[in-house]
Amino acid sequence: QSVLTQPPSVSAAPGQKVTISCSGSSSNIGNNYVSWYQQLPGTAPKLLIYENNKRPSGIPDRFSGSKSGTSATLGITGLQTGDEADYYCGTWDNSLTWVFGTGTKVTVL
Amino acid sequence: QVQLVESGGGVVQSGGSLRLSCAASGFTFSTYAMHWVRQAPGKGLEWVAFIRYDGNNQYYADSVKGRFTISRDNSKNTLYLQMNSLRAEDTAVYYCAKDLATNSIEYWGQGTLVTVSS
Lengths: 109, 118
Description:
The complex is a heterodimer.
Chain A: E1 9-12, E2 18-23, E3 35-39, E4 46-49, E5 63-68, E6 71-76, E7 85-93, E8 97-100, E9 104-108
Chain B: E1 3-7, E2 10-13, E3 18-25, E4 34-39, E5 45-51, E6 58-60, E7 68-73, E8 78-83, E9 92-99, E10 105-108, E11 112-117
Parallel strand pairs in B: 2-11
Antiparallel strand pairs in B: 1-3, 3-8, 4-5, 4-9, 5-6, 7-8, 9-10, 9-11
């Protein structure tokens, strides 16, 4: 059972913005970096954001991350049909286990 | 470019064993920590295990502790997951993944399916 809580789904029209929240605790998000992953249908996950707000090479700046206290947020602007996917947050927990969020399905209306 | 190729998945009876392998290339394998992550059909991601770059530290999810063992052979650029006492709830696609050394998982393999039949 995941210790990081995300909304099951978010949706918006093409070109609009969505935000996905990831809620944890002081034993995980509160004391560690958060990363975000995109999983397109039928494919392996892909790193989108690391160290709370950094983008790997090749990830467009439409994707952004932030962290405050024990929560983190992924933002996607200029929404495209190709952004339809499942998104997961992740971080280390002080119990020396890695934890993923419950996952959020993004739908482009 | 980084490549992670998992193998060893298949169908196994409940209580049985299986060993997964992950062949790594495109980076200096011996200098990076590695993870195994799984995803049950239609479900979210579940982290399974972590091993440090030199193999000296391993961490496990509570759900597999005592049954699964992560290991690596840096001379062969290969990561392993030995899975014993398998249960139906272990049925999932198992991904091998490279750590970024900044508290994130950087690259993922394409996964190998493990099905445990009861």
